[in-house]
Each structure stands twice: as C-alpha cells, then as structure tokens.
TrEMBL record:
<dbReference type="GO" id="GO:0005829">
    <property type="term" value="C:cytosol"/>
</dbReference>
<keyword id="KW-0520">NAD</keyword>
<dbReference type="InterPro" id="IPR002218">
    <property type="entry name" value="MnmG-rel"/>
</dbReference>
<comment type="function">
    <text>NAD-binding protein involved in the addition of a carboxymethylaminomethyl (cmnm) group at the wobble position (U34) of certain tRNAs, forming tRNA-cmnm(5)s(2)U34.</text>
</comment>
<feature type="domain" description="MnmG N-terminal">
    <location>
        <begin position="5"/>
        <end position="375"/>
    </location>
</feature>
<feature type="binding site">
    <location>
        <begin position="9"/>
        <end position="14"/>
    </location>
    <ligand>
        <name>FAD</name>
    </ligand>
</feature>
<dbReference type="GO" id="GO:0002098">
    <property type="term" value="P:tRNA wobble uridine modification"/>
</dbReference>
<comment type="similarity">
    <text>Belongs to the MnmG family. TrmFO subfamily.</text>
</comment>
<dbReference type="GO" id="GO:0030488">
    <property type="term" value="P:tRNA methylation"/>
</dbReference>
<keyword id="KW-0274">FAD</keyword>
<dbReference type="InterPro" id="IPR040131">
    <property type="entry name" value="MnmG_N"/>
</dbReference>
<dbReference type="InterPro" id="IPR020595">
    <property type="entry name" value="MnmG-rel_CS"/>
</dbReference>
<dbReference type="GO" id="GO:0047151">
    <property type="term" value="F:tRNA (uracil(54)-C5)-methyltransferase activity, 5,10-methylenetetrahydrofolate-dependent"/>
</dbReference>
<dbReference type="InterPro" id="IPR036188">
    <property type="entry name" value="FAD/NAD-bd_sf"/>
</dbReference>
<protein>
    <recommendedName>
        <fullName>Methylenetetrahydrofolate--tRNA-(uracil-5-)-methyltransferase TrmFO</fullName>
        <ecNumber>2.1.1.74</ecNumber>
    </recommendedName>
</protein>
<dbReference type="GO" id="GO:0050660">
    <property type="term" value="F:flavin adenine dinucleotide binding"/>
</dbReference>
<keyword id="KW-0819">tRNA processing</keyword>
Length: 445
C-alpha cells in the first residue's frame, strides 16, 4: 500500500484513527505538535493524554448509551478501549483508568507498529492533497484554527472546558471521609468502595457556596465568550445558577451512608474518584473550576476531610474549539469544500473521551475504504456510533449546534415500547440489543 493516511493530532481520536488504519494495512503518519508546542492543559508529549477526568463513564452496554459505545469500539478492535481495559481502576459501574499508564500504553503500541510514523511539529495550514484526518481536539493550535476559519468562511464556535483538581490521597482526613460508591454499585468490594466521600451539613454547605461565589475567578480575554458545555460546567457557574444546584448535581448526598455518623444524613457530599493505579491520587468529581489557584486551595480546604489537602494539580480553564459540523461536514466526515480532509474527535462537536475516540475510529474506516477503493456506508443511526455521526453531520440543528455526548435521545425510537420512567429499563435494553446486531452487520461489510 503506497498511499498514506496523515493524521493531525495524537489525542484520543487521532490515536484511534491511526490504529484502525495501520491495522488495516495503511501506512500512517501522526503529526503531533507536542511537546515542541505545548498547550495549557497537557503535561506530557504522550499520545492520548487525558487532561480532564480519568473516567470513561458507564461501562454498562445494556442500559447506558456510552457503555454501548464502549462495546461497539471493542467489537471494532479499538486501541483506546483495549488500553482502557488494561489500565482500569475500580470505579463502581464506571470505567476509570490510570491516566499515565493509559497514555503510555497507547503511545507504546503506536510507536511499535511498523506502519505508524510519528512526526513532531505543528501543521499550520490545510493540506491541498493526500488523505488527511484533522483530530486536533479542543486545543487546536491558533494557526491551524485560523486556517480552518479562513477555509470555511465561518467563525469557529467555542466553549470553555474546566479541569478538576487532583488531591493526594494521604492528605485526606479519613476520620471524616469514607470509601463508598453511590448505592454500593460494583461487583467487587473494591468497586463498591471506589469513591472517597466528604460530607457536609447545611451550615457547611451554605458557607461553601458563599466562598465559591466570592472567590477570585479567571478573567476571559477580550473577544472570548463564556459558552459552557452543560456536561462540564465549572462549579462556580453551577453555584451562580442557584444555591441548591451543586447539591442536586455533583454534591448530591443520595445513596451514601457515613460510617462515622450512620444516623446522620449529610446535607451534601463531595466525592473524589481514584485517579491512578496506586491509589495515591484522587480527583474531585464534577469540580471543574475557573477559580484562581489561591482561591481554589482556600475554598476546597473548607470541605470536611480536605482541611489539610495537598493538591497534585489545581483546576484550570481552557478554550475549546469545534466546527459547525452539520454545515461543514458530509456524512463521511469530509470537509465539503476540501473532501481530501476529514475531521474527527471533539473538534467535530462530540463531547467526551469515548465519543472523540469513536469519531476517530469512524473517520479512519471511511478513509481506509476510500484509499482501498471500497464502498462503506455510514453506520446505522440505531447504533451508538451511527447516532453520533448522524447527529453531527446533519441530524442537529446547525443554528443551535452544541457539543453532544452520546445518549439514547439521539437514537431512533423502538416501536411499541412504553415511554416514561417505568418503561425505561426495557426500552434501553431494546435500544442496545438492536444496536449490537446492526453494528456487527456494519463491521462485516
């Protein structure tokens, strides 16, 4: 095979795309600007570095859309899921990973592959010929983003992603905190105790909200707008929406019993999730923030159990750029004005590690078919990948297009099933059964 596939960006989408193509016998060149050109959020030059959460979310392939996406990627021989499984951590019903071991594993597998070449350095312009996938993610370099804007004739849309802080486990006061997954979820004792919980009474919660609202925050640069994706809201934005918002969001106290005070119901609970295999680091779940560093340490040490917390990393904020894909991309993820270029990952308007990797997988398979002269249809909209790609390439309303996680609301309904909460379990099982059968058929093309 003489034709190469060039991939710009070595994140989740770019890494998965490279693996799929190389496994199909296509020579691949990954163009990654790190570590020569850094970003606000990345700490290393590894491929597939995780910069926000270390969770791939639910792994339930029968009742959860993202769990179904996990299943589809495993069926397609996905590298991202293989490495996630190899470096998983206890997380109840979720799939969480040791972020360093995961990225090192992905990097090693791609560097060792005889058909993969990694070229370090920034690509600043859109290529005129050859087969290309742009998978530069939320932190696309300014030069390349400008080239994309110039080509599309439209301003790239932007929202802001905030990074949650990470705490050293040995600095948590275990006389106040305890290990328990919500509703004791998980099949093993380790999974049922995958989270650290820090309880608050009403007075502590009210004082905490006051401190968040009063804290110094990062200012936006001139011309930037604070349009957040609802799945990754900074805690101060949630607090500004109402004093009870956090208590019904990441700080909800349900499904937990404090062994230190079993008869006392917490008013709110802060959860921390294990962040590495050693169990020495925990990230504060749902606590993405744009508070300044000094304010963060003061505010987070108000949390019972974290009074003497030591932080391995504080939270931060960065700009996240994505295309208006329903307008700009065709159903094979090609840029309509330059069909030699495909886009994949978060820049297409999907949100989440798994969704990004899934779009890399699809873009690569479309490119493989094109390079080898084969026909490959878009996956059925009844599958998780099909639902996502259909949404971003035409199913969504272009005027109001915003980043989207995979969810059953994107799937065509199954006829004859009961709606509402009572019928949800049967409905979700029907969605996933149908999707699995159709996905196997699509892979067999």
């Amino acid at each position: 095979m003489t034709e190469k596939l060039h991939i710009i960006g070595g994140g989740m989408a770019g890494s998965e795309a490279a693996w799929q193509a190389a496994q199909a016998g296509i020579p691949v060149v990954i163009h990654e600007m790190r570590p020569h050109v850094g970003t606000f959020a990345h700490q290393t030059g590894n491929l597939a570095e995780m910069v926000c959460s270390n969770s791939f979310r639910s792994d339930d392939s029968e009742q959860n859309a993202v769990g179904l996406l996990h299943w589809e990627m495993r069926e397609a021989g996905g590298l991202i899921m293989e490495m996630a499984d190899a470096h998983s951590l206890p997380a109840g019903g979720a799939l969480a990973v040791d972020r360093d071991q995961f990225a090192e594993g992905v990097t090693a597998r791609l560097r060792e592959h005889p058909l993969v070449t990694i070229e370090e350095g920034e690509i600043a312009a859109l290529p005129d010929d050859g087969h290309w996938i742009i998978a530069t993610g939320p932190l696309t370099s300014g030069n390349l983003a400008e080239a994309i804007r110039a080509e599309t004739g439209a301003e790239a849309l932007a929202f802001f992603d905030a990074i949650a802080p990470i705490v050293y486990a040995d600095s948590v006061d275990m006389d106040k905190a305890w290990f328990q997954s919500r509703y004791d979820k998980g099949e093993t004792e380790e999974e049922r105790k995958a989270y650290l919980n820090c309880p608050m009474d009403r007075d502590q919660y009210e004082a905490f909200i006051d401190a968040i609202l009063a804290a110094d925050k990062t200012e936006f640069h001139e011309g930037e707008t604070a349009g957040y994706f609802d799945g990754c809201l900074p805690i101060e934005v949630m607090a500004e929406r109402g004093r009870e918002t956090l208590r019904f969001g990441p700080m909800k106290p349900v499904g937990l019993t404090n062994p230190h005070q079993p008869d006392v119901k917490a008013y709110a609970v802060v959860q921390l999730r294990r962040d590495n295999a050693l169990g020495t680091l925990f990230n504060i779940v749902g606590f993405q923030t744009k508070m300044k560093y000094g304010a963060q340490t003061d505010v987070f040490r108000m949390i019972p159990g974290l009074e003497d917390a030591k932080f391995a990393r504080l939270g931060g904020i960065h700009r996240n750029t994505f295309l208006n894909s329903p307008t700009l991309l065709d159903d094979q993820m090609r840029l309509k004005s330059r069909p030699n270029i495909r886009f994949a990952g978060q820049i297409t308007g999907v949100e989440g590690y798994v969704e990004s990797a899934a779009m890399g997988l699809l873009a690569a398979r479309f490119a493989i078919a094109e390079i080898t002269g084969k026909e490959l249809t878009t996956p059925p909209a009844e599958t998780a990948m099909g639902a996502l790609v259909t949404h971003i390439t035409g199913g969504a309303e272009a005027k109001t297009f915003q980043p989207m996680n995979v969810n059953f609301g994107l799937f065509p309904p199954v006829e004859g099933l009961k709606g509402g909460r009572r019928g949800r379990k049967d409905r979700y099982k029907a969605y996933t059964d149908r999707a699995k059968e159709l996905w196997k058929g699509w892979l067999a093309q």
